[in-house]
């Protein structure tokens, strides 16, 4: 039976229309929403903690608007849902790749390095497009984030050309032929997708990463992102692989540290989803790095506090408004125990990096802001005391904890607490 020529041409035209629709902006064939591609993109987006920065309102995931405080002003993260008007719904694959690899937006303007393109440039095209496929499957949200609030001349984009000349090298990750596949995978994750150096590396005068002290510790919103090089005192050299994998997957390494602040968010949104293979790869890579020392003579969690019964000693003694022991017993001991040994989900204060660190900024910030950390294994919550305790009272508790359970050299003043209180989180 012969098909009429007119019907044949109509069929060909229909196929052409389908192809043209598939090639419309924001719908590149290479980003086809295949289930396996979306699933892989979801994993990669979690490891990169994309939701952490691009979500201000949990009811609008990936819609942006989260303020990021910098010393130059406040940057508000963009909407990266597939909404065509306010998000990235009309972006092509090439435009998305350029933003991730080169730090250049769809409009041709240079992005600020609050977005980690300095690290994402190392990602393969396949991984970037998998992330794009996943974001395309996320429910679109019509939302326009606030405009950035940056002081002149940082409000201008073109000076980023000079910043990039000093601090950015575009190019994909190149495996070390002398290293194992496991170590190379860890390098790809730590240096690229997970962008660990963004927080854990000190900054230069231009606010770029200090390559000579890579992963030797940095500061984020007042929090110390500790040294994660193999130095046995300042870093993680004394940690076992089990300690590292437990910390990344649950936020807690008993006798070592408990994630709080930005790191608690990283664990909740990202590292808890790492496969066992990737966890081992991260540990292998971190152990292979040059150790960076800050002069510490013992690990933060390795302090032996004196054995004494403060509760008995306080009986019958006059109370003082800034009595650290009484403030601790009244506000903290019900969960952490009067002897600081903790119980259940409440971590011990002995053998805890927050109690053993000098300075004790992280400890004071935990008291101020509390802790919220949720993983597939457990949820941890500590209330914030910023509204109940003064700067002087928080300083008194912090000093009592460091002196009683940790580093006696650490001290905190009311003025220091006040500065931490005023630091945007």
What does this structure look like?
It is a single chain. With 425 residues, this protein is mainly alpha-helical. The protein has three domains: 22-167, Cytochrome Bc1 Complex, Chain D, domain 2; 181-288; 310-422, Cytochrome c-like domain (Cytochrome Bc1 Complex, Chain D, domain 2). The protein contains 19 helices and nine strands. It has helices spanning 5-22, 35-47, 50-53, 93-102, 117-120, 125-137, 160-167, 181-193, 197-200, 241-250, 261-269, 276-288, 310-314, 324-331, 333-336, 353-356, 361-369, 391-405, 414-422; strands at 67-70, 73-76, 149-150, 218-220, 223-225, 252-253, 257-258, 371-374, 379-382. A three-stranded antiparallel beta sheet has the order 1-2-3, with no helix packed on it. The protein has a two-stranded antiparallel sheet with strand order 4-5. Strands 6-7 form a two-stranded antiparallel ribbon. A hairpin with a 2-residue loop joins strand 1 (67-70) and strand 2. The protein starts with a helix and ends with a helix. The model is unreliable at 1-32 (pLDDT under 50). This is Cytochrome c family protein. Heme c 2 binds at residues 196, 199-200. Heme c 3 binds at residues 332, 335-336. Residues 1-24 form the signal peptide.
């Amino acid at each position: 039976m012969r098909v009429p020529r007119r019907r044949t041409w109509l069929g060909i035209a229909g196929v052409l229309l389908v192809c043209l629709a598939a090639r419309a902006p924001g719908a590149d064939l290479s980003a086809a929403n295949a289930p396996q591609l979306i699933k892989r993109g979801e994993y990669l987006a979690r490891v990169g903690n994309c939701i952490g920065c691009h979500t201000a309102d949990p009811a609008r995931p990936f819609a942006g608007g989260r303020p990021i405080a910098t010393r130059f002003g406040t940057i508000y993260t963009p909407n990266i849902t597939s909404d065509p008007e306010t998000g990235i719904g009309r972006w092509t694959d090439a435009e998305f790749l350029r933003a991730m690899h080169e730090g250049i937006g769809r409009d041709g303007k240079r992005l600020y390095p609050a977005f980690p393109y300095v690290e994402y440039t190392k990602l393969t095209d396949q991984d970037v497009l998998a992330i794009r496929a996943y974001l395309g499957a996320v429910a679109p949200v019509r939302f326009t984030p606030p405009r950035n609030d940056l002081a002149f001349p940082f409000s201008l984009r073109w000076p980023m050309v000079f910043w990039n000349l000093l601090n950015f090298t575009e190019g994909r990750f190149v495996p070390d032929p002398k290293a194992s596949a496991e170590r190379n995978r860890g390098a790809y994750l730590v240096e690229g997708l997970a962008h660990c150096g963004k927080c854990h590396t000190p900054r230069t005068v231009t606010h770029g990463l200090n390559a000579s002290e890579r992963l030797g510790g940095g500061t984020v919103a007042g929090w110390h992102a500790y040294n994660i090089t193999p130095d046995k005192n300042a870093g993680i050299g004394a940690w076992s692989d089990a300690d590292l994998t437990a910390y990344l997957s649950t936020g807690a390494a008993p006798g070592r540290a408990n994630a709080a602040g930005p790191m608690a968010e990283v664990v909740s949104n990202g590292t808890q989803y790492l496969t066992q293979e990737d966890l081992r790869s991260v540990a292998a890579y971190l152990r292979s790095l040059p150790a960076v020392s800050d002069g510490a003579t013992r690990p933060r969690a390795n302090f032996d506090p004196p054995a004494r019964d403060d509760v008995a000693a306080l009986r019958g003694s006059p109370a003082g408004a800034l009595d650290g022991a009484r403030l601790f017993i009244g506000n903290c001991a019900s969960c952490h125990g009067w002897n600081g040994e903790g119980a259940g989900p409440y971590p011990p204060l002995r053998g805890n990096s927050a109690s053993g660190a000098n300075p004790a900024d992280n400890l004071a910030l935990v008291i101020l802001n509390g802790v919220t950390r949720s993983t597939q294994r457990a949820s941890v919550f500590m209330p914030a005391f910023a509204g109940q305790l003064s700067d002087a009272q928080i300083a008194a508790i912090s000093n009592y904890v460091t002196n009683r359970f940790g580093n006696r050299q650490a001290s905190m003043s009311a003025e220091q607490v006040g500065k931490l209180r005023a630091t945007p989180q």
